[in-house]
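anyone else get weird line breaks when pasting these?? whatever heres mine. first is seq + tokens for prot A
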Amino acid sequence: MSAPDVGAHAVPVARVVRGDLVESVHHGHVVVLAPDGSVRLALGDPDVVVWARSSLKPLQAVGMLRLGLDVDDEELALVCASHNAEPGHVDVVRGLLSRAGLRVDDLRNTPDWPLDPEAAFEWRTTGQARSSLTQNCSGKHAGMLATSVWAGWSTEDYLSSAHPLQVALRDTVAALTGVPVEHTTVDGCGAPLFSTTLAGLARAFARIATARPGTVEQRVARAMSQHPWHVAGTGRDATRFMQAVPGLVAKDGADGVYAAGLPDGGAVAVKIVDGSPRPRPVVLAAALAVAGVDPAVLAPIGATPVLGHGSPVGAVVATFGPDA
């Protein structure tokens, strides 16, 4: 039996313009939900089944809080993060581990260099090797470990899909998206990864962004929107979008995924079929504009120039939205 083809019903969502020619085209799927949950825009197939990758982290954080994870808002933002491993990120992860009686050696995520070039340079020049601490998912893994400690579960096998933590997180993903988890695999960091649909991912972000005060969903929304630097880092578009749009909850994911929820209940989700990160900010900005955000606020963040000899000679442009 062949695997479902995510590209089967994809449509052009961004064009790469160099000079006066379209040089290449990115295909994908986009869904924009109105505040009442109806579909405001659908490009491609909004019900396409996807691996949402790190865009699932806010949903997983909701599940950890429900299981008793005890963190402050900066730590919670790191649990939701694909961080740069700048010093401030690493310090928060160390603190979360320490408060739970854990060590860096307890992390089981794949060792890697910091995403931030300056942090990576400093890490390497001080003689450090690739580390689970500086891999961009270390906040999520620290949260998983701490949740297991406070729930009284084993920590050595916390990445097993049969571990009670992962069973609960799978159920949380299904509940928030409204879509049964039909596929499970292993994410790049080593954690179990659960399937959903693009529309389901948008619904989950809408639920988080509009959650009532006092709920764990609202805690996640508050942590991300009030501490956007902790969710990504210096210069990252996820951080910049949340800094620019009050109350926005946004999370990028590998292989061309992006999702965002607005405090009025609008939400968007994006999947670029070729997996490229290049058009993601452009497409997210166009989708948020369709959802009602001022395009002038979004334009500087979504701007993705095409360079020739180091200078702009074109741009990546969305095929939809106010500027299309």
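and prot B, same format (seq, then tokens)
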Amino acid sequence: MTPGKSDSKSRGTILVTGGAGYVGSHCCKAFAQAGWQVVTYDNLSRGHADAVRWGPLVVGDILDADALDAAFAQYKPDLVGHFAAFAYVEESVRKPELYYHNNSIGSFTLLDRMRAAGIDKLIFSSTCASYGVPTRVPIDEAHPQSPINPYGWSKFMVERMLSDYASAHGLDSVALRYFNAAGCDPDGEIGECHDPETHAIPLAIEGALAADRPFTVFGTDFDTRDGSAVRDYIHVSDLAAAHVLAGEWIMDRKGFHPFNLGTGNGTTVLEIAEAVARICGVDRPAQLGPRRAGDPPVLIADAAKAREELGWIPRHSDIDTIVRTAVAWYRKFADRTLEKAPA
């Protein structure tokens, strides 16, 4: 598809904060294909300029009120997709001030400038980390939210703001609580490129294809079928499809609405390592390490609400498809550093 063009009549304009990042860029592609005019707003501190392919890029920070005002005045979006956030749990523990400043205060600044511009529809990229250690599995949206790290708290604070802004100011929003985003664009146009990389599947691929980067499974004594932790992996393209549905849904709804995004099926970390080794065609076993503090044994979503209210059905989230698309991206770009423009 030609950058900036869509394959159907425009449904409106969406401004996507953090649209040069992993999930944000996949969502930009999905919105463009669904007929939206897409504007990416990103400071490129952790995103990649060459992931912006479906509309203009505005280099700006969500903490910069003047830059937000200018972008809103120029593009007049009907909807904002908010993905701009730092998302490393371990880093958030070491540097909580970074996470509360960027994720929470940055989101407040965004909401403040949306109000000033008269923009009243938003999709928020949230997280299952807001639940903390689950008291029941699968986890539905009514499960208590009790985060156990600053990253989870910083996102939970934004959800609280959104709920209050909906009641007080008529700013309507959807919060999509992801479980484990994984995989890459099946067309190979965009993918996953974090620095540092902390996600299990790309780390397992590195461990399979690079002898000097062994993959470690943290914890093999959980009460699960093979002793390793169980997670609910959802393909990033399925996440993107959910955002499009949520964007269309909120345009004629009022209030604040949270939705879980997951498959309802769990895969162990050892099963991930086995799938990666099989698809890569290698026999390089993972290293076994101790549990990490705060790691729950099982995290699985109850996503019935998204299925029933949004009509969302994951179509790419079987583990083999997730791993195949991630391996294809890694093999294509393992020796290439994605272009990063200055912030």
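btw re prot B: The longest helix spans residues 96-117. The CA atoms of residues 100 and 154 lie 6 Å apart.
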